[in-house]
Amino acid sequence: MKLSTGIKILLADDEPHILQFLELGLSNEGFDVRTAPDGAAALELALDFRPHMAILDVMMPEMDGFEVVERLRKSGAQIGVIMLTAKDEVENRVKGLWLGADDYMIKPFAFDELLARIQARLRNQFPLLIGAVTHGPIRIDDQRKEITYHDQILELSPTEYELLKFIVLNHGIVLSKATILNRVWGYDFGGEENIVEVYVRSLRDKLGDKEHKLIRTLRGVGYRVDL
């Protein structure tokens, strides 16, 4: 199995031959690839497909790459963004980076360089995709979908797994219920915020966190994991 298996990439460019070339190359590397011919389609696809990486051309019809990356960042989507442009102008690169792009490439470019930049972003932004991560007494193995606490595997439902993974990876940061709902249940979740309390209570039981020293509640603000 290739290390890229299961990693989702969105490609957006209004030049069909570039889309076809990149789609073929990245698919052969094992990535799950979806394509969009313009900015509006890219944004819609991103919110549904939830890719780990987006490769966006700057100059596209309907909506340019700048607006796409700006809207993606405002949506709270956790996604790495590499922007492509035929213009070797500093002001374009600066604008893209200020709006939330992670990297920039000037056309034409070598496929191997793009692949290296994608892998660099994934290592930095999604370390769990390429191996297990340990924080204090908690070890998260995303390949096996297992979380261990003091070397004991926790029996977790899929949602409990995603919730514990999210709050542990953001340990030390206060997370509001709204943020947790958006990142764990999805931006289109139509239920009540109280569902977060129910799942946090269950996690505390499974972690033996009766005194709430691991998952702390900050009343009126949210939750924070202390490791």
Compact overview of the structure:
One of its GO terms (biological process) is regulation of DNA-templated transcription. The chain is α/β, with parallel strands linked by helices.
Count up the domains: 2
CATH class of the largest domain: Alpha Beta
The CATH superfamily of the largest domain is known as Response regulator
- Stated plainly, the CATH topology of the largest domain is called Rossmann fold
Q: Report Rg.
A: 19 Å
What is the number of E strands? 11
CATH architecture of the largest domain: 3-Layer(aba) Sandwich
Mean pLDDT: 87
Helix content: 40-55%
Largest sheet: 5 strands, parallel
State the helix count: 8
State the order of secondary-structure elements, H for helix, E for strand. Answer: EHEHEHEHEHEEEEHHHEE
Into which percentage range does the β-strand content fall?
15-25%
Mass-distribution shape: elongated
Q: How do the strands of the widest beta sheet line up side by side?
A: 2-1-3-4-5
Distance between the first and last residues' Cα:
34 Å
> What structural class do you assign from the helix and strand content?
alpha/beta
Unreliable stretches covering 5 or more consecutive residues: none
Keywords: DNA-binding, Phosphoprotein, Transcription, Transcription regulation, Two-component regulatory system
DNA-binding region: 130-227
Protein name: Transcriptional regulator
Modified residues (4-aspartylphosphate): 57
